[in-house]
Write the structure tokens for this entry.
Amino acid sequence: MSTDTPVRSFRLAPMSPMILVLTLVLLALPVGFLIAVLAGARFHLATCVFVTAVYAWIWSRFRPTRFVVHEQAFEAIWPLKHRVISRSSISGARLLDQDALKQEIGWGIRVGACGLGGGFGWLWTKRRGIVHIYVSRTDRFVWIDCKNGRPWLITPEHPGDFVRVLLNG
């Protein structure tokens, strides 16, 4: 947003230990393919290039880098895109732990990218339908309800401060 001065910017929270381990394991895959290619296994070259391209796409188009609360809007920013939601269209925001999240959504199926740095995209849930999901942790979630749209589930750094700023300016 070029006209508003950000009230506050929050990075995507650091990965939880489980997501960090999964991310490191996944990042080892293209390295393993590259080592195989250097050892002479040419058929792994295409796999290495493909996996690396998918990872770059996930990191630049699915994994947001920060969430910005402007005077009139909430903005999610990725390296290659951004999404702006009017603050007047936000009906509420609250912190959720894992148990409260389970109560809110029931069970769900994630659609999008998962594992490499977190879970990003949509989450189809039994109780709430489709939810925008941009999480890098398995705890300290922020749930944002929108008046005319799907809810958002995010994990910004300093989630308590984020909710306070989003709701109170």
About this structure: Strands lie at 8-11, 66-69, 73-77, 82-86, 90-96, 108-114, 119-125, 129-135, 141-146, 152-154. The first strand starts at residue 8 and ends at 11.
